[in-house]
Specification:
Elements: H1 3-20, H2 27-52, H3 58-63, E1 75-76, E2 83-84, E3 93-99, H4 104-123, E4 126-132, H5 137-146, E5 153-155, H6 160-164, E6 172-176, E7 182-186, H7 192-203
Parallel strand pairs: 3-4, 4-5
Antiparallel strand pairs: 1-2, 3-6, 6-7
């Protein structure tokens, strides 16, 4: 990071210029000038650091208006041959949600996600994906069948994808834009209001500093 060397150079220059003027400036004013210069440099440094902060989590980045790359890996499709990944949906908005059959909030959220997925597919702008985690294939299959869910369901058997998304509880839902970047996170029961706002944001082109 180059911010600190630049700060040191600016501060040194400010102090040097203040010393040069000691022959015609009272001591009290010289001291005040140095203090003000130092305070200004601190403000510049704080602003630069905020702009280049390497956020340590998806949540931090999204909370600060950034769009971090969405973790991705190929996962088996529940009850069918083959695998799927986010890469296959590039150019589309994706609602990605982790669930388990034993999770009561997941049971309440599933119809809303399925409806959202059908609408995204019908409009040709995206899809909804369920990722089964900490569950058995038999229980997950029964869950999907009993609710008539039509969206793709993947299985995260080893929990690696959930780990990359820092999933702790269920359900947890991530909305991903057309470039494969996370724009919104719900680490609880997702609502219609959350999904509508997040999908609208995902369909918009980000500002240059959000890339």
């Amino acid at each position: 990071m180059t911010v600190l060397p630049q700060l040191e150079e600016r501060l040194t220059d400010a102090v040097r210029r203040s010393h040069v003027q000691t022959g015609r400036m009272p001591r009290r004013r010289r001291g005040r000038r140095v203090v003000l210069a130092f305070a200004a440099m601190l403000v510049v440094s704080a602003t630069a650091l905020a702009a280049t902060q390497p956020w340590t989590s998806l949540d931090d980045a999204v909370d600060h208006g950034q769009r971090p790359p969405a973790p991705d890996r190929s996962l088996p499709v529940l009850g069918a041959p083959g695998t799927e990944s986010l890469a296959q949906f590039r150019g589309k908005v994706v609602v990605l949600s982790f669930f388990a059959s034993w999770c009561e909030p997941c049971q309440r959220q599933a119809p809303l996600l399925d409806q959202t997925g059908r609408q995204l597919t019908q409009d040709g702008v995206g899809a909804a994906l369920l990722v089964n985690w900490r569950d058995t294939p038999e229980a997950a299959t029964a869950f999907v069948a009993s609710r008539g869910l039509t969206m793709p369901v993947l299985t995260d058997d080893d929990g690696l994808l959930a780990h990359h998304y820092a999933v702790q509880g269920l359900p947890e839902t991530f909305v991903i834009d057309t470039e494969g970047r996370v724009v919104a996170i719900s680490r609880q029961l997702a609502t219609r209001q959350f999904l509508d706002a997040a999908i609208a944001k995902a369909r918009q082109q980000p500002a240059p500093d959000q890339n």
